[in-house]
Each structure stands twice: as C-alpha cells, then as structure tokens.
Amino acid sequence: MNIRSYTFEEYVDRVKSFHGFAAPGVVIGGFMVELAYQHLPEGGLFNVVCETAKCLPDAIQLLTPCTTGNGWLRVINIGRFALSLYDKSGGEGVRVSLDPALLEAWPEIKNWFFRLKPKREQDHGLLMEQIRKSGASICAIQKVRIAPDFLERKRRGKIGVCPECEEAYPLADGLVCLGCAVKIPYADRRGILRSVGAVDEGRP
Amino acid sequence: MNIRSYTFEEYVDRVKSFHGFAAPGVVIGGFMVELAYQHLPEGGLFNVVCETAKCLPDAIQLLTPCTTGNGWLRVINIGRFALSLYDKSGGEGVRVSLDPALLEAWPEIKNWFFRLKPKREQDHGLLMEQIRKSGASICAIQKVRIAPDFLERKRRGKIGVCPECEEAYPLADGLVCLGCAVKIPYADRRGILRSVGAVDEGRP
Fold it and tell me: What DSSP state is assigned to residue A81?
C-alpha cells in the first residue's frame, strides 16, 4: 500500500529527513493520512486538526498542504492519536484514529503504543515490519463535523508596539503583550545586539 | 546573504513548496533563523521556542531539525514575531525578534507587518524585494536563558483506554480522555468504518 505518492520506503526516507528519525508514530501517521484521503472527494482542499502533538503532526505536514505555520493544521493536544481532515467551510470531514482493539494482532505495535516495554527492549526492526504490514488496518475511520466555533476564523485585529518590550503584538491581547504579561518562557533576556554584530546594551 | 545552505531564491522555492506560498513572514523567518545560528556555537544541537503560531514555525521547520511532531520546536502563542534557539540542557541560547524601530527604513515591510494596508493594496513584489535587501538587519538579537520549568521534560506516564471513546490516552489526564471531557472540536462523530471499507455502526 502506497502512502500518497510514495512507496513505504520512500515515505520512511522522507520521515527520517524531516522528523530526524523513522519514528513509528510518523510512519503509522502516513497510513492514517492516506486512509483519510481515500474517504474524501478527490482534489478537495482540507484543513486538519490533530489531537496529539506527538509525531502525528509531522505525517500531516509531509503529506498534506497543511503546516503549523500556515494555519491549515491545528494541533489540539488532547492526547489521542487521531487526526481529522475537513472542509473548512462546512466542517464536514473524516477522522482517523488508531484503534486499540485492532492492535491485538500486532504485539510489537501494541508494546510501543501502550509503552508496555522500555524503549531499549523494543525490537525496532520487528516494529517497523508490523507497521508496514498492518498499514491502515489498525485504524478506525469516522465521519465528523467540526464544531462551528472551532471553524470560526479569528479576526486579525490591530497590531501595536508593547510599551514594555517595544516589540509588536496584537493590541487585543491587552495593555502589554502576553510575553510581558506572563514572562514565560524566559528566565533571562539581555544583551540586545541590534543587528549583526552591533552591540546595544541600552534596552532593558 | 544566504539562508543556511540556500540562496535567497532557493529558500523562497522551499517556502512555496512547504508553506504553500511565498509568505513574507516565512521568508523573513529564514533570515531570523540564519542570524540565530550565526550567534551559536557551530555543530550544536538546539531546541526552539517560537512566540507566534503564524508563519515563523515553518521557517524553523525548514531550516532546523526541529519540528512540531518531534517536540524540539515548541510554539507558545504569545503573539510576538520572535524565536529562540537554545541548548536544551542548560537553556542558554539566543532570541531573534523583528525590531519595529528598524522597520522605518523599509516602508513596505512596515505596512505588511503592522497591517497598515489591506492585503490587496500591498505591493508583493516590492515587499519581497525589501525583505531580500533588508535581510537580518531588521532583527534584534539577545542572549536568553530559558526558564527551568519550561525546559523540564514531562514524564511520559502510563497509557490506558478511555472508557467513553475506547481510544488510548494518557491516564494522567483523568478518568476519561481530554477529548471526551471537553468534547472539542467535534459537533458530530459517527459512522465508524473499522478498517478500509468495513462499516461498523455499533460503536457510539
């Protein structure tokens, strides 16, 4: 079974190059995206919501036009290994998830998915072989309709300059930017170099 | 000025292919990532935190080993056009942001960045030309230290099966998975097809 325009081996190579290694979750994710497309009208443009931040977003970014930065992929980290492709106007689409009940036939996938064995005791070769053989047969697929309030495109409001950090921010966020309001994720920020090489310590 | 191993034109082509179009924010983001690397030890491995979900994450995913799915990139959407590359053990790194004060010399970038003109009145050709010419000169760079609690790697806890949806989820999330607890983002989920083509309407 091919994964979009790729053979299994070609897809695994793309995973290694983008994700850094042949992560089982990204490889399984490839079959999940392929399964979703098989149940959608050909040539359609779909947005994606991904229910986990782990691995699966990279399968989506490799195989669909949707990325984190273009906003067509949204990750809502609710801890389920599932994704939905949907029409952004009406919200109709399909959801593909990994079905735990179907993993009984594939013990090494089950060990990995439920973390039943420490990583060092997992057999990566056997795991990849079971993933290749099982393909999308370990997945469930459902019709879904995305909730209207999730579909709603946020209005892009006015941009201003934060009086505290002097950087641009959406004025709707408040009197100062959220970075200054909550201070995360920095313990320390200092030593502004205005441009390459030009040191300017004058700013707080 | 090159952007990592790419010429400006090569990088813009990569942006089109991954992001879908030559978005100004992803192109500027290329110079920002390049500037960050110039101020970091060569050959080091760095994680990235990105302070906006718009555009910038894709520059990071194109030019660093960090992706949404492998966890080395984290997006905290605090609305600032900035990113930090840091050493994941100690948290030391550099932060690159777009400096509003430096945009005075580049009116078309300023128009785009502060949304001073409706999109249809923007001159895309002039904007790209100003981005190419300005390069990283519109950026500020600072030394940063990421806060220890942000660096902390969350322990990967036990995985169980949610009694409501029968899917796998992190047991630490509660008695049911977060998807069942909060019900987002779906208005409707039905018609489970167990595997390709095999209809099973028996599950709720």
Answer: S
